[in-house]
Amino acid sequence: MNKLALSDDILMRVEKSARYIGNEINMAKKDPASVDLRYAFCFPDVYEIGMSHLGIQILYEMFNRRNDVYCERVYSPWPDLHAIMKEQHIPLFSLETQSPVRDFDFLGMTLQYEMCYTNILQILDLSDIPFYSKDRDETHPIFIGGGPCTYNPEPIADFFDIIYIGEGETRFDELFDLYIGMKKSGSYDRITFLHEAAQIEGLYVPMFYEVSYNPDHTIADFHPIYDDIPKTIVRQIKMDLDDSPYPENPIIPYLQVTQDRVVLEIMRGCIRGCRFCQAGMIYRPTRGRSLETLKKYAIEMLKSTGQDEISLSSLSSSDYLYLNDLLLFLIDECNKRKVNISLPSLRIDSFSLDVMDKVSDVKKSSLTFAPEGGSQRMRDIINKGLTKEDILGGAKEAFLGGWNKVKLYFMLGLPFETEEDMEAIPDLAEDIAMLYYDTVPKESRNGRCRITISTSFFVPKPFTPFQWATMQPAAEYKRRAHIVKDRMRSELNQKSISYQYHEPDVTLLEGIFARGDRRISRVIERAYNKGCFFDAWTEFFHKDLWDEAFREEGIDPDFYTMRERDIKEILPWDFIDVGIKRSFLEKEWENAAKGIVTPNCREKCSGCGIAKKGGGVCFENKN
After folding, report:
1. Is the dihedral of CA 43, 47, 48, 54 positive or negative?
2. How far apart are CA 101 and CA 93, in angstroms?
3. Which of 291, 376, 384, 427 is deepest in the core (most CB within 10 A)?
4. pLDDT over 60 at 565, yes or no
């Protein structure tokens, strides 16, 4: 084992020292001197969160299959260790070899949630790497970002050398070959390499693009500064998932992490077209792995990890074509091994009592449903594709199958929302609770019905039909949450239904980051210098410091949240081609205002544009 970067004294002083020592089971081990390229892969959050991210595990596996590349991992140090590292000038290090991040050729980062943006600067700060790409030289790693947040990369664009748009399995080999080739030939210098990288499809090099603004602060123009780099960055898609690398021997952490189980990604994309959902748009088209491939992965991962639970990963598992066959296989395997099966992302209208009964033979747990809107009107506006009959029918099947705990997720602050839509949320929960007592005989009940309502506040995201929508002030969000809470006054509600809602101040900041432009980077830097990081964690979020940062930078946050965008406005992310036609998004925005439901992709093609990729759900029924 490599010498640890932290002394025993420091490890004894910090919370959960196992976060920092590496050497876990199934960790990649190579001699750094034997490779041509070293890649530090970072998740800008604490170890337990980062180790639960499947995307890093997939690329970690892919990169380390190459003999000339060594990929190692980095996570954000928790605030206790952060303070010690700053005080004692300890550089941030990788887990595999405990090497300083600054010594790597590449520092890669996946951006899954906007509220991690200050942690980008934490990583750079502790690594002694300048915050801004323009300030780096030949001694610094190439800093590359990816993940769903990069579909509007502009608020953090100035921090990155390269931003990868799309799925990572497609272009990294080409990028690595370019870097290694230039290094070996002696032709490498930082700017020349970045210029060459900018010509690889899907790679955005922000320093080579200029943006100008109108007097009203909207974008006037966005263009590359060189003629040989693209004006439009095309999202990269891996169409054949069976031909994609997958971590059959995933790393087993020393401490319990958020997703402490085997994760089986069954498909990517979603056929449903919910108008608020960015993932449902940017991950089109829907593509599934074959049944045989999934069986193979499941057996290999259960063998190599010894985990006692396996979870199916997708945006809508119910829509996987071979779900029943896969479940029958897993139920048989998991019964033999005494392994639990977790079925997230199931639609309430797709529950089969037979399937639920079989899964429950392994282990029962609470069920999670996401109606998103309480009223039928709101569900039609957001194109959820669920009727009240679907919801109650699915809940009835669940109750008859022995479940008595249900979690219901809704959104408040959606476009065109009325007070009646808000009040419909607890009304629907009460109808579900009543259904339990009306359906399940007293002698057959597994205790009292328990329903948890959770509401988040809507955030408009790029490349969704709601990308033009306005947000609401924090006080208005709280008012809407109290409308829901005040409606829960019946005796049944008090006994069976509980309610929780998110903090609106965090939602508003997320909304600024989601649709912001390059001017936001200055605010992020100023907030970090004031002590902001781990903003996604309630105990570390400091609204007053963010307010100061915006005020000192002379930037009005309401510009990004409290105005509805003009349909003709140039949006900060318009230079990215995700495969979805803008005209489709505009039509869906109009349909939302009219409450018109758009069929899902298997019912009817609505011409979103993604069929040009030549595969997936668009061609399921074609020879």
Report:
1. positive
2. 5
3. 384
4. yes
- Give me the percent of the chain exceeding a pLDDT of 70: 95
> CA–CA separation, 35 vs 104, rounded Å?
11
Question: How many domains does the chain fold into?
Answer: 1
How far apart, in whole angstroms, are the C-alpha atoms of residue 319 and residue 29?
A: 38
CA proximity to 369, closest of 401, 397, 313, 409: 409
- Cα–Cα nearest to 313, from 272, 267, 273, 274: 267
Which of 161, 68, 181, 216 is CA-nearest to residue 517?
A: 216
Q: Look at residue 85 and tell me if it is in a domain.
A: yes
Within 13 Å of residue 293, how many CA atoms lie on the same side as its CB? 15
Is 489 domain-assigned? no
- Tokens standing for 363? 């282990």
Which residue, among 142, 179, 150, 169, has the nearest Cα to 57 in the 3D structure? 169
SS3 209: strand
Q: List residues bridging with 500 in a β-sheet.
A: 454
Task: Residue 406: name the closest of 299, 490, 497 by CA.
Answer: 497
Residues of the chain by 3-state class (helix, strand, coil), percent to 5: 45, 15, 40
* Type of residue found at 295: K
98: which 2 tokens? 């405990």
* Close Cβ partners of 470 (under 8 Å, ≥ 6 residues apart): 415, 460, 561, 562, 563, 564
Domain assignment of residue 182, yes or no = yes
Residue whose entry in the numeric block shows the structure tokens 């008595």: 404
Q: 57-71, 335-349, 389-403, 592-606 — which is least confidently predicted?
A: 335-349
User: What is the residue-averaged pLDDT of the chain?
Assistant: 94
CATH assignment of the domain containing 171:
3.40.50.280
State the amino acid at position 602 in one-letter form.
Answer: R
What element of type H or E holds 44? none
Instruction: Kindly report, residue by residue over 229-247, the tens digit of the pLDDT.
Output: 999 999 999 999 999 999 9
The dihedral of CA 316, 318, 320, 326: what is its sign? positive
Question: Average of pLDDT values for 344-361?
Answer: 62
Residue 565 is assigned to a structural domain of this protein: no
pLDDT digits (tens, 9 = 90+) for 492-518: 566 789 999 998 999 999 999 999 999
Note down the domain range covering 224: 8-234
Q: Decide: 230 and 223 in contact? Cβ < 8 Å.
A: no
What are the pLDDT digits (tens) for 11-63?
Answer: 999 999 999 999 999 999 999 999 999 999 999 999 999 999 999 999 999 99
CA-CA distance, 141 to 143, in Å (whole number)? 6
Do residues 280 and 270 touch, judged by C-beta distance below 8 A? yes
Cα 578 from Cα 235, distance rounded (Å): 5
Write down the pTM of the prediction. Answer: 0.95
